[in-house]
């Protein structure tokens, strides 16, 4: 389930045969010239609508922390997200405060419950993913991560996700802890293959902002060469204009 950052990248990924897509909050924010978590709720909803209605694939929405702290506000925001055409969304337990990076567990569970109620009330059948962010906010505690993910599963999350977990033993432990509910693993670099993750019991793989970073890497390398050296060799391996243009037929 790769992560496009705009409609063009979403349509190309659909052409490549992927069965589902997921948005990336980071990739989308960078496309607007902002840092991750730097977009508004309204901008995120418009982005979800653009992707979901622009491709004929299920789209999971990176809904960050629900754009709110209190469960009633999470409920209201998730209700708005259910009207965008998405097939799934995720809720994170990160606070954005480096001194206290994760919501207290009771509040984190109440936030998942609020999202669950909003989805159920909408009648859309949207898949809810519960995310625990400890491994990417400086608290790589496997036992605490499992405690949180199992609590989110009991609170109504359909899929569980702990971005940053990479060790096979840790991945297997999470899969076993929340079974039979599926687990999503984030792959942002080459530490495992699809086959290896499937063997570990992983049911869903996403790449977060990694494809956007790959695109930015090529862009930056070529642009820096022009700015610093006055040469253009970095453009030699670019996809030909006709090939790329042909991926976007007139509507």
Provide tags for this entry.
seven-stranded parallel beta sheet, TIM Barrel, alpha/beta, single chain, 251 residues
Describe the structure.
By secondary structure, this protein is an alpha/beta fold. The protein has one domain (7-209): Phosphoenolpyruvate-binding domains (TIM Barrel, Alpha-Beta Barrel), CATH 3.20.20.60. Helix content is 46%, strand content 10%. It has helices at residues 7-15, 25-31, 41-54, 71-81, 105-122, 142-155, 168-178, 194-199, 210-229, 241-245; strands at residues 21-22, 59-62, 88-91, 127-131, 159-161, 183-186, 204-206. Strands 1-2-3-4-5-6-7 form a seven-stranded parallel beta sheet. Strand 2, helix 4 (71-81) and strand 3 form a beta-alpha-beta unit. 37% of the residues are buried.
């Amino acid at each position: 389930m790769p992560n496009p950052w705009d409609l063009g990248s979403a349509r190309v990924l659909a052409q490549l045969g992927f069965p589902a897509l997921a948005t990336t909050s980071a990739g989308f924010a960078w496309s607007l010239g902002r840092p991750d978590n730097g977009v508004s709720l309204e901008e995120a909803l418009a982005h979800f609508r653009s992707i979901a209605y622009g491709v004929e694939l299920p789209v999971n929405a990176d809904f960050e922390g629900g754009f709110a702290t209190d469960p009633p506000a999470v409920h209201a925001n998730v209700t708005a997200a259910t009207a965008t055409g998405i097939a799934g969304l995720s809720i994170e337990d990160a606070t954005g405060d480096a001194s206290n990076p994760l919501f207290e567990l009771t509040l984190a569970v109440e936030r998942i419950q609020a999202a669950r109620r909003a989805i159920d009330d909408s009648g859309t059948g949207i898949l809810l993913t519960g995310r625990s962010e400890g491994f990417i906010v400086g608290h790589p505690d496997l036992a605490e991560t499992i405690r949180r993910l199992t609590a989110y599963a009991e609170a109504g999350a359909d899929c569980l996700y702990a971005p940053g977990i990479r060790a096979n033993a840790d991945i297997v432990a999470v899969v076993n802890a929340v079974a039979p509910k599926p687990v999503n693993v984030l792959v942002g670099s080459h530490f495992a293959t699809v086959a290896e993750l499937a063997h570990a019991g992983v049911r869903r793989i996403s790449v977060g902002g990694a494809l956007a970073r790959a695109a930015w890497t090529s862009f930056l390398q070529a642009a820096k060469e022009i700015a610093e050296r006055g040469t253009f060799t970095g453009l030699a391996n670019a996809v030909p204009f006709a090939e790329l243009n042909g991926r976007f037929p007139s509507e």
